[in-house]
Amino acid sequence: MTYTHRAKVHFRAVDNTDGSFWIICEPQGEAPGALAERFIGFDLRKSVTMQEADSIAALVREKCTHVSITTFEAKDGAREVPNDARR
User: Which residues does residue 23 pair with via DSSP β-bridges, in sequence order?
Assistant: First the structure.
């Protein structure tokens, strides 16, 4: 079975403890299913400055309206592969 969940989101730059930055994708309002009580984010290269990270977040906010996530269940109802096992 396949499920797709979509939510209106807000992107903003966040600093990591190692001095690098990432963009967090925060649901706005009630987020459905797999997006509920979770954050999605993406890491930026270590060479990216906070000012650049803010600009990237602003660009993504301007161009993206929603984020979706699709989950899959095996025939027995279990999840196909845990996220940590994919690394």
Answer: 13, 42
